[in-house]
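Before surveying the methods themselves, we first show a specimen of the format, giving the amino acid sequence and backbone structure tokens:

:::
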Amino acid sequence: MGRIRRAIGMMSGTSMDGVDVALVETDGDRIHRLGPVFCRPYAEGERAVIRAALEAAPGLARRDGRPPALAAAERVVTDAHVAALRRFMDDNGLTAQDVDVIGFHGQTALHRPQAGLTVQLGDGQALADAAGVAVVYDMRAADVAAGGQGAPLVPVFHAALARMVGLAPPLAFLNIGGVANVTFVRADGGLVAFDTGPGNALVDDWMRLRAGRPMDAGGAAAAAGKPDEALLNWLTAHPWFSAPPPKSLDRNWFSPGVAAHLALEDGAATLTRFTVRAVTRALAFAGDPPPRRWIVCGGGAHNREMMRLLREALPQATVITAAQAGLDADFIEAQAFAYLAVRSLEGLPLTFPATTGAPRPLTGGVTARPRR
């Protein structure tokens, strides 16, 4: 492997809650240290601009298209990342000379790999110029161009995390962001990964539309409601769930409007259980033996009702949060993009046939170097 590099990862997820920042020291294979983390929340006005871009994005015919709504959101996303990075570096006494690379995911506006389209908003060159540090960005494009799903990208990092903390396979990392994805680390060390279905996006959108709140904090509304079993059975009969991986999902594939006939709490209960049932459907592709342990990260790890339902639905396994495994549930994806940036610099693969359907292990990412 190459030399140990100090990398900063930056992630703006499909939940649109803010910009996560994390420092990782790695050679692109092993994780040598997980450093400090930081989150810069989006202001509501910034979220509104990003939401407008997501609503406009399905009309894109080219991944480099930037009609006004997307151009405005790209400026907002880039400026927010610059501000978050400056605050993070100041808080931790870091200068540009202390950092080898920044891994920049950007904000996904559209993900339709079947059409060869994956669009992450964010100007990597502008971030490199502002930081004075090389930036690796656009990490999904090479995989999609080769016929892969372009997602999930984090599985190779999940495997490195498992080695770092001594978690023995078979196990699963379940990331519940706006969309949920799973990495199965099989007993032989092999990886299988894919999006399981909706994560927090449906219930977040439901709460925003019906209650004017950004999320169901702690799952309180879902815990108070009664799920619509007929609707759940109809939703989980969607062909997506029986299709074998690789597969990945756009945030807006499913709509909270399917629960429009329900009261607030009943809709939250139904949509939260939809996420959990999608996870249980994923077990069909886990291999034998199935995971003995599930490590839950992302925003869903803070949803007490979601965690209760997962434990109820997976009684033969131990279901814990990343924090209970000694990890930071909120920053694993930001950490992953630091790790992936170093892998990109080293020419190591980011994606694999069993994680994205790539035709072969593929590296990826575009490197922007600061212009002096």
